[in-house]
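Can't attach files on this board, so I'm pasting raw text. These are the components:
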Amino acid sequence: MASQQETDQQVTGTFAVDDEGFVVDTEDCEARELAHRERGTSHPITVVGNPVLHQECQDVTEFDAGLARLVDDMFASQHTAEGVGLAANQIGVDRKVFVYDCPDDDGVRHTGYIINPVLAELPPERRVLDSSNEGCLSVPTAYAELARPDYAEVSGVDLDGNPVKLRGTGYFARCLQHETDHLYGRLYIDRLSKRDRKDALRQMAEGTPRYEVVPND
Ligand SMILES: [Zn+2]
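---
Top answer:
Structure tokens for the assembled complex are below.
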């Protein structure tokens, strides 16, 4: 999955896609990320315990200027919090949208967004588990080891409602799974053992986030 790989690209909707129909999200990352966040407004981050994080978000049905503004605001918020991925409910919005700006294990940067994402079921031979450290802006200052498949495919739509597909390996595959989980009301700590979950919450209680969070009251 090297970025230098030559593929026949064609443009459908707002994204270029490769010859297997997956979004090319490795080009002009810096310019695209900057354009989104300069149009957007940064918002504080919701944290574990806030109800919006613990329920499935609503499907997006209106593809209007408000949706484009949400994506811009999410890029701005992700940048402020120094995240590599952000789901809409992490800024308190009950809609199935996530953005990302995330390197894979080859150091290749992936930048983009997806609306109404659905994670593809992988055939058993493609489910190779990778155990790495994971953290979440909504569980500030905590990290835990979590095993996840090292490859992921997600399908959804773009800002115009056109079908799109994303895929990733390594750390970026982890990001795609983590962000899709968010939109179905699941945090990574919900996938930990009872003991590791408790430890993550203790780390959070003892730490101080480096960005503004929404108080739970
Ligand atoms: Zn998260």
